C-alpha cells in the first residue's frame, strides 16, 4: 500500500496481464458495451474488479472512437482529392472542345500547333483542312 505525503492511501494504476488484456480485447470486438451481469461475469473470470472492467471498456471505447474518427478523416480527404481530380479532368475536357471542333481554314498555325501539342499523335487521322467544296462551320 502506497501513501501520499499526508499519509492517505495513494491510488496505484493496475497492471493487467496479457491474458486479461487478450480477453478484454476479444470481448470488446464482440460488443462495445457490457451490461452489469456481463461485466460482473467477465471481472470474476479475469480476477478483476467490476470497476476495473468498466473503466477499461470506457478507455477502450475512447481509443476506438479516436481511431475511427481518424480513419473517417483520412477517407474524407481521399474522397475530396479524388473529387478534385475528377473535377480537374472535366475542366480539361471542356478545354478539349476546341480540339474536337472542325478546324477553321483561316485559323493561325500557332493555334493548330498548340492544339496538336496538347494531344497525343495519331489521334484518329485528324484533317487539317476540310475537303474541297465543303465549307467549315
From TrEMBL:
InterPro entries: HD, HD_metazoa, Homeobox_CS, Homeobox_NK-like, Homeodomain-like_sf, HTH_motif
Compartments in which it is found: Nucleus
DNA-binding region per UniProt: 9-68
Highest taxon of the lineage: Eukaryota
Location of the Homeobox domain: 7-67
Record bears the keyword Nucleus: yes
CDD domains, alphabetized: homeodomain
Skewed-composition ranges (Basic and acidic residues): 77-90
GO biological process: cell differentiation
GO molecular function, one term: DNA-binding transcription factor activity, RNA polymerase II-specific
Keywords: DNA-binding, Homeobox, Nucleus
Pfam families in alphabetical order: Homeodomain (PF00046)
Annotated protein name in UniProt: NKX61 protein
Natural source organism: Grus americana
Amino acid at each position: 500500500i502506497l501513501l501520499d505525503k499526508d499519509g492517505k492511501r495513494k491510488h496505484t494504476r493496475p497492471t493487467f496481464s496479457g491474458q486479461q488484456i487478450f480477453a478484454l480485447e476479444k470481448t470488446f470486438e464482440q460488443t462495445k458495451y457490457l451490461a452489469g451481469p456481463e461485466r460482473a461475469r467477465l471481472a470474476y473470470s479475469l480476477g478483476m474488479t467490476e470497476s476495473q472492467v468498466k473503466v477499461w471498456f470506457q478507455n477502450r471505447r475512447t481509443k476506438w472512437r479516436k481511431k475511427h474518427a481518424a480513419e473517417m478523416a483520412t477517407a474524407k480527404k481521399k474522397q475530396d482529392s479524388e473529387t478534385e481530380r475528377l473535377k480537374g479532368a472535366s475542366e480539361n475536357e471542356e478545354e478539349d472542345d476546341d480540339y474536337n471542333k472542325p478546324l477553321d481554314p483561316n485559323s493561325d498555325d500557332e493555334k493548330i500547333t498548340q492544339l496538336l501539342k496538347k494531344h497525343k499523335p495519331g489521334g484518329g487521322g485528324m484533317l487539317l483542312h476540310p475537303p474541297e467544296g465543303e465549307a467549315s462551320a
